[in-house]
Design goal:
This protein has 289 residues and is α/β, with parallel strands linked by helices. It has a 9-stranded mixed beta sheet, with helices on both faces. The longest helix has 18 residues. The protein is globular, with a radius of gyration of 18 Å.
């Protein structure tokens, strides 16, 4: 059964006209989740592997005396490996870890063709094997990267010890927005046309592809923690906020996850509360033993 270890979501009143306008802008900016990494934490130097005939840049944080599952990170839309620098810095020495720059991010060149969640899961699977990192894995994903890790777990359940999902993008976010918040959906499309890089646009366009076939796979059984931000923008209208909370609750039903709301954290939980992410990783790894 899903469990909610929740804290109240921050909320302050705002002028209705400003709240409605800024909420739409905030949603568009949240979809473009990339932010600069913390200046006081440096990511390990990246390596390069050939995956499906093209180079992929990745960071492997080795653990010579590893005693737990390998931790595999997936970044959100627009983010590269540096978005996990603070978490990698705080991760205990018994955990080896890997995070890649998807095609079009960081030092990984872009690719033509579909960038569906299934394609990205296949590329991650190939990278892990080429890097010599044997399962089981604890999969950690932020925003759209959370959706990618969920799809990986459904495609390769035998490889997965558990999941930690940080404000994951819901499989039906776009469809729900178009039905319930058409203006917000239109603004996201405007952001896609004017702000997104080519790689971001490819992933945004394909985020719902292949999900129907994935959902036909056996239900997810690996222990899962869903970390939720609590600093909801004060300008987000109640309708949009309620819609997003409803999608979050549906995530719990889909995954059987435990919901933990992270105090004083915005959407970039890995920057605002890296130790909370590490605690969730350790809890999932321990429960999988």
């Amino acid at each position: 059964m899903p469990h909610d270890s929740s804290l109240p979501i921050a909320h302050r009143p705002a002028a209705p006209w400003r709240r409605a306008t800024l909420a739409l802008l905030g949603l568009a900016l949240a979809a473009c989740s990339g932010t600069a990494p913390r200046a006081d934490v440096q990511a390990p130097a990246p390596s390069v592997a050939m995956v499906a005939g093209a180079p992929i840049s990745f960071v492997h944080q080795a653990a010579p005396q590893a005693r737990g599952p390998v931790v595999v990170f997936q970044s959100g839309l627009g983010d590269g490996h540096a978005s996990w620098s603070a978490v990698l810095h705080a991760l205990p020495a018994q955990h080896a870890a890997i995070v890649a720059d998807r095609p079009g991010y960081g030092d990984s060149p872009g690719r033509d063709g579909s960038r569906s969640a299934c394609r990205i899961a296949e590329e991650q699977h190939a990278l892990l094997h080429q890097a010599g990192l044997r399962p089981p894995y604890v999969l950690v994903g932020h925003s759209l990267g959370g959706l990618y890790q969920y799809v990986y777990a459904r495609m390769y359940p035998q490889d997965v010890a558990g999941l930690v999902l940080l404000d994951p993008t819901h499989p039906r976010l776009q469809a729900t927005l178009e039905q319930a918040q058409p203006v917000a959906a239109a603004l996201l499309q405007l952001a896609r046309q004017t702000v997104f890089t080519p790689a971001m646009a490819q992933e945004f366009d394909a985020q719902a592809d292949c999900l129907q076939q994935v959902e036909q796979q056996p239900a997810l059984k690996a222990p899962t923690v869903l970390l939720a931000s609590t600093l909801t923008p004060v300008y987000m209208g109640e309708g949009l906020r309620d819609m997003l909370e409803g999608l979050r609750q549906d995530w719990l039903r889909r995954s059987g996850a435990t919901l933990a709301r992270v105090p004083d954290s915005g959407h970039q939980i890995q920057h605002d509360a890296p130790h909370a992410v590490v605690r969730a990783i350790e809890a999932v790894a321990a429960s999988a033993l």
